[in-house]
Amino acid sequence: MGLMLGEIVDEYTIRIVDVFAMPQSGNSVSVEAVDPVYQTNMLEELKKTGRHEMVVGWYHSHPGFGCWLSGTDVNTQKSFEQLNPRTIGVVVDPIQSVKGKVVIDCFRLINPHILMLGQEPRQTTSNIGYLTKPTLTALVHGLNRNYYSIVINYRKNELEKNMLLNLHKDMWTNPLKLNDFHEQKKSSDETLEDIKKLTTLYNKNLRNEMKKTSEEILLENIGKIDAKKRIQNSVETLLNESILTCIDILCSYKECSLLTDDIRILSYCKNESKCFIKNFNNSEYSSITCICKKYLNESFFAGPDF
């Protein structure tokens, strides 16, 4: 449970820019009252940081129950609307929410005196499709009778869009991670078997196409596997995986070689200022500079002199 900060733009628009949680807890039966002292202190601290937004509503969650207002929520919303009739209440269901689709809804109470006078509450119509169809659970719990729903729209700037797009983006180091050799071999063998079968199918299709017209070929290929494109995709995938695996192996081998060379240098060069040591391929020599540290009992640091 918490409060929402923002501004009232016009008669039909409320912009919410930030929220902060309140030290209250609730259940299906009751909910604690909002602490006015905590709320006042929080707003004063926010003003010191340059945030001068006002409280435009409150939010809470219904884990697994859907978005609607219970009797307790209606009483809480009524206490907020006594301070400001434009205040709204937001309900979020984190259990039913999935990636890319958040189960959330916004409500405001219907004045019972208006219904007694025979007047209808404010209605929102749209031909664009912004209105969401209410659930049966919400209708049973008083939707469009005790409270009505408000359309929610998300407005993001360019920085927020880039941040959300890069949230689940793969890092450039992911392709360089070394896969398990047995799994890689199994995947490569399966790809080769698919290429073999697709090649046989492609040769068969070529022989059949030589005896038919272009229209007959076009009609026969509808809904069938395009062997040529499948072969191209399989070959590209196999080559990319093989090249990346070779690069990973070479990088791992180089790191192991440097680590082993450093160990051999530390055990061999104790008092010499410079020495030469062979690599594993016995074809190249690496120049190693040993810097003695007299103040550390003649211990030294050894590293490659590139």
UniProtKB/TrEMBL annotation:
Q: Where is the signal peptide?
A: none
Which SUPFAM superfamilies does UniProt cross-reference here?
JAB1/MPN domain
Locate the MPN domain: which residues? 1-113
**Entries under InterPro entries matching the protein:** JAMM/MPN+_dom (IPR000555), JAMM_MPN+_peptidase_M67A (IPR050242), MPN (IPR037518), RPN11_C (IPR056263)
Keyword Metal-binding listed? The answer is yes
Highest taxon of the lineage: Eukaryota
The GO terms this record gives for MF are: metal ion binding; metallopeptidase activity
Keywords (alphabetical) are: Hydrolase, Metal-binding, Metalloprotease, Protease, Proteasome, Zinc
What's any one GO cellular component for it? proteasome complex
Its BP terms in the Gene Ontology are: proteolysis
**Which Gene3D superfamilies did the record assign?**
Cytidine Deaminase, domain 2
Name of the protein: MPN domain-containing protein
